[in-house]
Amino acid sequence: MGEVNALVAQQGDSGDIELAHQRVDESFLPDGAVEIDVAYSSVNYKDALAVTPKGGVARDYPLIPGIDIAGTVRASTSADFSVGDAVVAHGRDIGTARHGGYAEVARVPADLVVRLDGLTTAEAAAIGTAGYTAAMSVERLISYGITPDDGPVLVTGASGGVGSVSVDLLAGAGYEVVASTGTDSAHELLRALGAAQVIGRVPPEGEKVRALGKAQWAAAVDCVGGTTLAYIASTLRYEGVVAASGLAGGADLPTTVHPFILRGVTLAGIDSVQQTIDRRRALWARLGDDLKPRHLDAVTTEVDVAALPGTLRTILSGAVTGRTRVRVA
Ligand code: NDP
Q: Which residues form the Enoyl reductase (ER) domain (predicted)?
């Protein structure tokens, strides 16, 4: 293999993180049973944090970021994978403490690799960690017995990666989706994805979060956290469930016990990072089958890996709509 093209994040003496396209020797790549010719990666909120000083995500530099890897197996010492298999890999330390997807070749442990079925590598990267997290969230609501007959499901951060795929998946499964967004330009897209109603961010400006507010939602998918999640807890209907995955709006949770002990509300935490490979493979199989997003193309923008430094710097400001797939090869 010799040398490989890669985007490398390096921390300077001042603490700033510099991103540069480099040719790195193959010995720069970590060990791993499965070597992948990377076709696509993607941009997630976490990828931006990985190249942000004190972002709290990357454990060491230099680092090839990219928490999603989609491509074709080029070599494997694992009996589970053969050369030519179309695969996706994400989770654990990929793109944070182990080199990730923004390079022509990636090496990963076999227990982080999922063989694709019903999805192309381009589709898998468009879904990526954010879309996968949306699927985990929807699957969790269903596992708690939430059905379309129970009433509206609120999706916050709806214009973003987790949010937009959640809207698509929930509407596809027959739920009445209320999409909450602070991005005016995303209203049309959210309706096209199947949202029955598009509202502004919650809590509405000027409205305080009360211990218990008007009960409105049967369930919610939240990737915003902070006051938004506190508002959701206080406005879920009796025995409502919120699948909480993110902190785009803050890591604090200024709530009380009242929604939980007086309305039987469930706060269901979603973590895509440490999930077992068996469950990961099972959910990816559903993403290629009954849970396949219906409007993946509509939510996906493709950029070349050469454009990445700029894109990574805009996502934290909330200026990116939907999913961003990165063309690596
Ligand atoms: P995006 O940036 O694509 O989406 C986040 C959305 O949140 C934005 O588009 C915006 O939506 C909204 N938002 C941004 N800033 C604020 C703010 N200050 N207040 C309220 N809303 C805000 O990110 P992703 O979808 O990739 O990730 C979302 C979150 O989920 C992140 O915190 C990420 O770390 C987390 N995550 C967690 C995972 C897990 O395993 N638990 C896996 C994947 C992601 P709008 O303008 O429509 O309101």
A: 12-326
Confirm or reject: Cβ of 30 under 6 Å from ligand 1.
Answer: no
Cβ-proximal residues to 188 (8 Å cutoff; 6+ apart), any chain: none
Question: At residue 318, does pLDDT exceed 90?
Answer: no
**Average pLDDT of 246-257?**
96
Pull the structure tokens for residue 149.
């007959």
- Distances in Å between the Cα of 303 and the Cα atoms of 50, 188, 237 are 19, 22, 41
Place of tokens 């990219």: 66
Ligand 1 pocket member 323 (CB < 6 A): no
Q: Quote the CA–CA distance of 190 and 61 in Å, as a whole number.
A: 38
Residues facing 22 on adjacent strands: 6
pTM value?
Answer: 0.97
Q: Which helix (H) or strand (E) holds 166?
A: helix 161-172
CA of 77 from ligand 1 middle (Å) equals 37
Given ligand 1 and candidates 96, 169, 223, 300, which is best to mutate, with the most ligand atoms within 8 Å of its CB? Answer: 223
Residues in a beta bridge with 72: 37, 86
Residue whose C-alpha is closest to residue 221's, from 240, 197, 204:
240
∠ at Cα 124 (158, 241), nearest 5°? 40
Tell me: the pLDDT tens digits for 67-81? 999 999 999 999 999
Peptide bond into 62 cis (omega under 30): yes
Mutate to test the pocket of ligand 1, among 41, 42, 43, 44 (most ligand atoms within 8 A of CB): 44
245 lines ligand 1 (CB under 6 A): yes
